[in-house]
Amino acid sequence: MRVACWVAILFCVCFAEEFQQFTIWADENGITLHDIEVRESSHVLETERGVFASADIQKGDVILEIPIEAMMNEATMKNSDCYDLLPEGEYLTATNQMALHLLYEKQNKNSKWREYIDILPKQLQTTLFYSEHELKMLQSSTLVQNTQMRKENAKFYFNIIAGWISSDRERNGVWGDEPFTEEDWFWALSILWSRAFSVKVDDQPMGSLVPMADMFNAYDPQKDRLQVKAAIEDSQLK
User: Name one GO molecular function term (predicted).
Assistant: First the structure.
């Protein structure tokens, strides 16, 4: 028990430091909060964070401003060195491009999004990570078939991209020495499926990772809660 407590304390301290670095990064990158604050609450071996109102908020109030330059999307992927991993004539879906972009930035110590990526969940509980035994426990749920299809598709593209990265390493390309594993690939896809927004960039809708905005809980129409809406204005998501 004493060892477990020490592990929990170390985990919470490390996360607190990462979160503090993220808030500094957000401020430096022009992310502005109005009448809201992000707080974390720590429990043993588990850390949660969320957005809380710090003042009364009226319908139509702007509570968060995020420059487009702070987001990760297809446009930033194409301006990244990792875009060179795609052989000429090869095609990846937007989601797979973004997953590759995220993993490249994750292993890049000098990434522009280093502090943001550091606070993303390290482990996810999506069904993509379920064992065959756990999936069978869902019995006749359509989720089983959907998960199996997604997993097969994810593995298919993982094998293709793993080959590209292997070739890149042979010529001392852009990827570096960090491993590229199937678990990493599942993680990146799950991050996108659970956190990405559709944001118009140059009038083109793009799946985007939006730092800070992804901490808001989803709107639940059954509970009549105020919905958080976003719009692009002056190159910022508001």
Answer: protein-lysine N-methyltransferase activity
